[in-house]
Design brief:
The chain is α+β, with helices and mostly antiparallel strands and 184 residues long. Helix content is 24%, strand content 40%. It is globular, with a radius of gyration of 16 Å.
Length: 184
């Protein structure tokens, strides 16, 4: 996947076409990639909005054509790229397990999208336990109510998202509601 390395080296946009049941595409700039995982700074509306780790097994193709080139030029012209959170080492994100372990260590609450039986579900909240083949998240729902602790198998993970405006705001709200104001 030479397009991944080119995006990383040049800070230029790519589009990832996924195998998600709803045909999800992701636009972003590659921060790192390994044999099994691609990490991008997601770009929406020509601005960065979070970091996503997506297993390569869910990637159908990577596009870097005229549309992505034009978007890259606009991003550079508008100077919208900003540095990511220094506490996270994206170069160490080689597998979903690596991502989850680092997020737990840094007390960063992710949004994790899982696909099981062609159905997608989104889980958000703190990581409570990490093992070799699964991890647990204490999740909350879209109404701001705490749910249960969910056990998630790594092979079901479609994407892991951090640092997006949605994830940061909702997590900050839930931490404050719970008496923990050190929201990330």
């Amino acid at each position: 996947m030479n397009k991944l390395e080119a995006s990383k080296a040049s800070n230029e946009l790519i589009r990832i076409v996924t195998k998600h049941p709803d045909g999800t595409t992701l636009d972003g700039i590659v921060l790192s990639h390994s044999r099994t995982l691609v990490v991008i700074r997601e770009i929406t509306g020509f601005e960065p909005d979070g970091v996503i780790g997506i297993p390569k097994a869910w990637i159908e193709k990577v596009q870097k054509g005229k549309r992505e080139k034009c978007a890259s030029e606009i991003i550079k012209l508008e100077n919208t790229l900003v540095d990511c959170d220094d506490s996270l080492d994206f170069a160490e994100w080689n597998t979903p397990k690596d991502v989850i372990a680092q997020l737990q260590q840094c007390d960063v609450w992710p949004a994790v999208e899982v696909i099981s039986c062609s159905r997608a579900s989104l889980y958000m909240g703190p990581i409570t336990e990490v093992s070799k083949s699964w991890f647990k998240l204490h999740c909350y729902d879209a109404c701001g109510k705490w749910e249960k602790v969910y056990k998630i198998e790594y092979h079901e993970v479609f994407k892991i998202e951090v640092e997006s405006k949605y994830v940061k705001c909702f997590n900050r709200y839930m931490r404050r509601k719970n008496g923990n104001v050190s929201a990330r």
